[in-house]
């Protein structure tokens, strides 16, 4: 995996409803929660009809899914968290 993959993965954290729905697991790089895509109940993006997932644990829009091709692990989410927060 690319050295900066935790940075590249960020583009998969918005306008990603179809990708989240295809995922086996999702994770939040803000609160570090991991859950199935069915747990996502709220979506935002006024103009796009709700295409960005909100984390069911913390309500922040920092969710990525396994269909992105990036690992949904504590270590990877932690790297993203350290970079973005």
Give descriptors for this structure.
single chain; 85 residues; alpha+beta; three-stranded antiparallel β-sheet; two-stranded antiparallel ribbon; 3 helices; 25% helix; 16% strand; globular; Cytoplasmic protein
Biggest sheet details? 3 strands, antiparallel
* Rg, Cα atoms, Å: 12 Å
Sum up the overall morphology in one term.
globular
Number of domains: 1
Terminus-to-terminus distance: 22 Å
What is the count of DSSP helices, taking H or I runs of 4+ residues? 3
What class, by secondary structure content?
alpha+beta
Secondary-structure element sequence?
A: HHEEEEEH
Strands ordered across the widest β-sheet: 2-1-5
How much helicity do the residues have? 10-25%
Low-confidence stretches: none
Instruction: Tell me what portion of residues adopts beta-strand conformation.
Output: 15-25%
Based on DSSP secondary structure assignment, what is the total number of beta strands? 5
Q: What is the mean pLDDT? A: 94
Organism: Rubricoccus marinus
Protein name: Cytoplasmic protein
Explain what this protein looks like in three dimensions.
The protein is an alpha+beta fold. It has helices spanning 5-8, 17-22, 74-84; strands spanning 26-28, 34-35, 42-44, 52-54, 63-65. It has one domain (5-84). Helix content is 25%, strand content 16%. Strands 2-1-5 form a three-stranded antiparallel beta sheet. Strands 3-4 form a two-stranded antiparallel ribbon. This is Cytoplasmic protein. It comes from Rubricoccus marinus.
């Amino acid at each position: 995996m690319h050295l900066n993959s935790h940075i590249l993965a960020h583009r998969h954290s918005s306008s990603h409803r179809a990708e989240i729905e295809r995922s086996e697991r999702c994770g939040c790089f803000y609160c570090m929660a991991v859950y199935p895509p069915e747990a996502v109940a709220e979506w935002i993006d006024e103009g796009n009809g709700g295409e960005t997932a909100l984390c069911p644990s913390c309500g922040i829009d920092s969710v990525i899914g396994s269909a992105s091709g990036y690992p949904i692990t504590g270590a990877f989410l932690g790297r993203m968290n350290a970079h973005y927060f």
